[in-house]
Specification:
The chain has 171 residues and is α+β, with helices and mostly antiparallel strands. The protein has 5 helices and 5 strands, in the order E-E-E-H-H-E-H-H-E-H. The longest helix has 16 residues.
């Protein structure tokens, strides 16, 4: 197994687990509680530190996209979907159907939804920007309250945008 650096960072939507290998960041996921960092210079320590800084800037409102290298394993289809996700502008949303069209198969809404569900780079690869065709929130590994918070933080429109839920006190 490739050596990894692992870091836990606090955010307005809870704790985040950051993992990186020498090639780039491979995990940014929500966790229930804080844990001890596992630094490893040979395994991407500079990438987790850079991502922690970029996430702080994102939550402060001064960053709209991420520039850290990523190393997320996946199928060719998943990588196409994730590639389209990073093209969705900050503060905008698209439907699963539109995402399917963008990857070349208008009938692949469920498949793009499954690829979104396998995205291990929450926030960086912004699967939270995909909503259902009626404008409502649907599916998010981090929970719908986090998805709503992230979209509201970015200024996106969606059904129920006035109900930010658990994280409403943060901005």
């Amino acid at each position: 197994m490739e050596q990894r650096s692992i870091k836990c960072v606090e955010s307005p939507v809870g704790w985040l687990r950051l993992e990186a290998v020498a090639q780039g960041v491979c995990v940014c996921s929500f966790v229930d509680q804080q844990f001890d960092d596992v630094p490893n210079a040979a395994g991407g320590q500079e990438h987790v530190e850079a991502l922690a800084q970029q996430l702080a800037e994102y939550f402060a409102g001064s960053r709209r996209s991420f520039t850290v290298p990523t190393a997320q394993p996946g199928t060719e289809f998943q990588k196409r979907v994730w590639g389209e996700l990073v093209r969705i502008p900050h503060g905008q949303t698209i439907s699963y159907g539109e995402l399917a069209r963008r990857v070349g198969d208008a009938n692949a809404s469920r498949a793009v939804g499954a690829a979104n569900g396998r995205n291990q780079l929450a926030i960086i690869v912004p699967c939270h920007r995909v909503i259902d065709s009626s404008g409502q929130l649907h599916g998010y590994a981090g929970g719908l309250e986090r998805k709503a918070w992230l979209l509201t933080h970015e200024g996106a429109s969606f059904v129920g945008a006035d109900q930010r839920g658990l994280f409403a006190h943060s901005s």
